[in-house]
Design brief:
By secondary structure, the chain is mainly α. The protein folds into two domains: about 160 residues, HPT domain (Four Helix Bundle (Hemerythrin (Met), subunit A), Up-down Bundle), CATH 1.20.120; about 190 residues, Hypothetical protein af1432. About 70% of the residues lie in helices and about 0% in strands. The chain has 16 helices and two strands. It has a two-stranded antiparallel sheet. Helix 9 crosses helix 16, helix 12 packs antiparallel against helix 13 and helix 14 runs antiparallel to helix 15. It is elongated, with a radius of gyration of 25 Å.
């Protein structure tokens, strides 16, 4: 395997290189969102213009930081997208997928240079030559097939380099007492009703529960699993107040602020769920004390409340209200939650969340 180096980049200050990596990832996310938007909502010149600008900015950042070998690859990708803008290259979903893959591969090369000062020349040359051939093709109809060949080679290379997967389970079995099971069955019914009234999908509570339990088992000191289950099903019951005041904005805001207390009171009517009551009551509190309804902070907030809050944020961001809006926004949701480290959530629980999500992403099930 041959390598190339970018010495001028390697001697830059670490802060500058870190900024470049951060900006690259942001642009990468924008590019993926635009490709996904084209695939889901249809082709538009506005989307192509934004895609071109994102690629151009990405290329410009690499150029400023002396990453010329990577600039060449990104420039050819930019030319292909410009051809789509000019109408002489037809957009095809293989080309869209190839754009995402090439940007990922360039990022892999960038990380290699960042970590060890050299990167894989063969990978870089394959990308460059493949894109040059696609751009130069005289028959536009052949470009989709050429993109498919590049994608296939990329996937084969990944398969050869990936070690055998270790079996990962995302099934957490919770044991309930006979009385607890009777209550849980009631809570499931209540949860389905409130989800329907609020316009959420029927699967929302089950997804939240599953993620709660996955996060919980990753914690150094897990909370009681049955109690966490009850909180997952009952956390939203107080939102019924909003429905009663939907025509009065003032009362509606008050209901929003008070719904954790109301939900906790409803759950407290059932004996033996004291920990779950505390979780429901505090699931809108924040680690830094800026939450509601009581403005609790730090260790005054039950661990289960943080777990529940993280799960709710992730599921609602990824799946949307209808439950059918999943569009590869999982990493955006992960980024949102990690951004809350030390603010909305304790840092050690963010690590538990990340460990749980690694399992979810491996088996692609939630």
């Amino acid at each position: 395997m041959s390598h190339f180096a970018c010495k001028a980049f390697s001697v830059l200050e670490k802060e500058i290189k870190d900024d470049l990596l951060e900006c690259y990832v942001e642009a990468q996310q924008e590019i993926e969102e635009m490709i996904n938007g084209i695939e889901s909502d249809g082709f538009s010149s506005d989307k192509l213009d934004k895609l071109f600008r994102s690629l151009h900015s990405m290329k410009g950042n690499c150029s400023v930081c002396f990453l010329d070998p990577l600039v060449g690859v990104l420039h050819k990708l930019e030319e292909i997208v410009d051809g789509m803008r000019g109408g002489y290259i037809q957009y095809h979903h293989y080309l869209g997928e190839l754009i995402i893959v090439v940007v990922e591969k360039v990022y892999e090369l960038l990380q290699q240079i960042y970590r060890s000062h050299v990167a894989d020349s063969d990978m870089r040359d394959e990308l460059q030559q493949g894109l040059e051939a696609i751009y130069a093709a005289e028959d536009d109809a052949s470009r989709a097939d050429m993109a498919a060949i590049m994608l296939n080679k990329s996937h084969q290379a990944q398969d050869e380099n990936v070690e055998p997967a270790v079996p990962v389970s995302v099934i957490v079995k919770v044991k309930f007492s006979e009385q607890q099971q009777e209550d849980i069955d009631l809570f499931v019914g209540y949860s389905h009703k409130i989800n329907k009234l609020l316009g959420y999908s029927p699967e929302r509570s089950e997804r939240i529960l599953k993620l709660c339990q996955l996060i919980n088992v990753e914690c150094a000191t897990p909370v009681d699993a049955p109690q966490l289950s009850a909180a997952a099903y009952m956390h939203n019951m107080g939102m019924a107040l909003i429905l009663n005041n939907k025509d009065d904005e003032v009362l509606k805001r008050q209901a929003e602020q008070n719904h954790p207390m109301v939900g906790a009171k409803l759950l407290a009517k059932h004996v033996g769920w004291e920990d779950a009551v505390a979780m429901v009551q505090a699931h809108k509190e924040r680690f830094d004390g800026s939450g509601f309804p009581q403005g609790l902070m730090g260790s005054l907030i039950p661990q289960g409340a943080f777990i529940l809050s993280m799960a709710v944020m992730f599921i609602d961001t990824v799946w949307g209200k209808s439950g059918s809006e999943y569009n590869k926004s999982a990493m955006h949701a992960v980024q949102m939650i990690n951004f809350e480290s030390g603010k909305g959530f304790p840092p050690h629980l963010i690590e538990s969340f990340n460990s749980a999500l690694r399992k979810v992403l491996v088996v692609k099930s939630l």
